[in-house]
Amino acid sequence: MPNRLSAETSPYLLQHANNPVDWYPWGDEALQRAKDEDKPILLSIGYSACHWCHVMERESFENEAIAQLMNEHFVSIKVDREERPDLDAVYMEAVQMLTGSGGWPMTVFLTPDGSPFYGGTYFPPVDRFNMPGFPRLLESVANSYHNSREEIDRVIDQITSQMGRTGQMPKGDSPVTVDTLHEAYTTLATNFDYQNGGTGSAPKFPQAMNLEVLLRYYRHGYNDRALEMVNLTLEKMARGGIYDQIAGGFARYSTDAYWLVPHFEKMLYDNALLARLYLHAHQATGRGMYRRITEETLDYILREMTGPEGGFYSATDADSEGEEGKFFVWTPDEIQAVLGDEAGIFGGFFGVTDKGNFEGSNILNINQKASEYAEKHGLELDRLVDVVQRGKQALLNEREKRIHPLLDDKVLASWNGMMLRSFAEAGAAFERPDYLDAAIKNANFLLETMRPDGKLLRTFRAGQAKLPGYLEDYSFVADGLLALYESTFDQRWLTEATSLADCMIELFWEDEVGGFYDTSAEHDQLVVRPRDVLDNAQPCGGSVATDVLLKLAVITDNEDYRIKAATPLMTLKDLMGRAPAGTGHWIAALDFYVSSPKEVVIIGSRNDSATEALLQTVYGGFHPNKVLVGADDAGHYGLPLLESRSMVDGKPTAYVCQNYACQLPVTTPEELSTQLED
């Protein structure tokens, strides 16, 4: 018989709806029952693409005997971490303090008032891996709760007194300078893997934000080595198994140091950040491979991760048919059956062998340049490229016949905001109307369906939008709308971005801490109010909020935006220099702030080819520290940057200003390019 999770919309929660566990979603009903019956809470947090979450469900939550222990001794609550990042952040901090590590599935035991006193991650059904079996743990925790309350209270006091300290740093007051950027570069260069790219060893994550910092450092002309680090990493990832060579898109991370064997789940936020990174690398270098990876990744999102209403889905699982990676790997015989006589050329190029590189099958990867492979095997390069392109399409068609990994088709506002920016930027840079159409459709969906009463909601699925939006939802969507404005000059998107920024300040800003909290008064009041200041797998809400306010301050000349953006930069600048791996987007915002961003104004009709030529000069280059506004010669929409700006001699005209000084207006792409590079 289905449990209470059957009424939820989250695919992750629905996966557990038929467990024999008497699961509750997080809410007043569960918390009140725990208080009424004086039972501890077993809080289990995970997400749909989590391999070990599925393992623990199969081993424990579907086990009748284990479920009986849970039902007898606990009020069990299941949470989708992607729907409830506040619960995930608060209780992950507690688990890390209790155990020294964290991850998912997260298993944490609470008192009825929500105070954590014990926790961990995955637990096996019997004693193994130097871990207690889950049944033994359940009995031990239940016994301690009823018979050792003083000890539990002591643990709670010790843990909760330390929680939230990262977000309670004293406000800084010393100036923010470029020295922080130099310190961050030195730290990133010291920890870089000069053989395989990226940072550290296995498992290895893409860390797109760190590479964006290096790309910015190179763009300033500080050190060409920064670009070498970016190029090495992007090439290795694009050729490795972490990149889906058949369909496009990146897996979440590599289990090895050299990007070959991925953990096969694909997350929307990774692909938003990486598509944008490869776009920026293309803009900085002109390398065709970077454009190809950008477009293949975004094409994958349009083809497989976009709903009919315009929302972008959250993730695809690593597992299918109960096996990790089964959907993605190939044997030589399978490739031969599809490609026939060309299987040898194709398989050789993608490293296919009889032995395989993953449990007897092959993860497609590229370990040499196409020109080198063609020369080695006596092939014309055009012939190899043709075989590879046709082979990829044929294998994609064949792969579609397989049983697919689970698709998590919920739409999260924050992750959609990230992908919105990527489509908007790429649509403008590559002159891809389909990308801009996807961005516009997504923006309309977010504003009309996920903001029914003027405030953003967190998640949408099965026709239902729900849960109050968090800081990251407001900041990421506002950021995406700003990019869409720059790509279209449709005033609506700038107006909506400004409205969201104002709402964001009203809901989340606190003068006392000099920054944003992740939750507002509309959210559950937990043991601490979460304020994440670290950029991890995705940027934190605060760093993107700061970036948004910095850009709006330049565009609208709003001093309050500027002050609120500068305050957390002063507080966190030392952390950025010491720990750039966890503050990548903060560093990007700091770079924008200290670099006196360029103000670029384009006046002219978007129907005039001369206007588009000027715009392509801006869109086609890597100019991270700039804002772009525009209008035809008739409408200035009240923006300060557009005041007294008109076409010169009836020609579409560009104006470039920086640090309170303007250069002469220009009307040719060549002149504008010179001004942008100065």
Describe the overall structure.
α14 crosses α16 (381-399). This protein folds into four domains: 4-163, 3-Layer(aba) Sandwich (Glutaredoxin), CATH 3.40.30; 267-316 and 408-595, Glycosyltransferase (Alpha/alpha barrel); 328-400, no CATH class; 598-677, Glutaredoxin (3-Layer(aba) Sandwich), CATH 3.40.30. With 678 residues, it is of the alpha+beta class. It has a four-stranded mixed β-sheet, with helices on both faces. It has a four-stranded mixed β-sheet with strand order 18-17-19-20, with helices on both faces. The chain is globular, with a radius of gyration of 26 Å. 49% of the residues lie in helices and 11% in strands. The protein is built from 25 helices and 20 strands.
Number of strands: 20
**Helix content bin:** 40-55%
Low-confidence stretches: none
**Sheet with the most strands?**
4 strands, mixed
**CATH fold topology of the largest domain:** Glycosyltransferase
Shape: globular
Euclidean distance between termini CA atoms: 68 Å
Work out the radius of gyration.
26 Å
Please list the strands of the largest sheet in the order they lie side by side: 2-1-3-4
Mean pLDDT: 97
Oligomer: single chain
Q: How many individual domains? A: 4
* Number of contiguous helices: 25
Q: What is the level-2 CATH architecture name of the largest domain? A: Alpha/alpha barrel
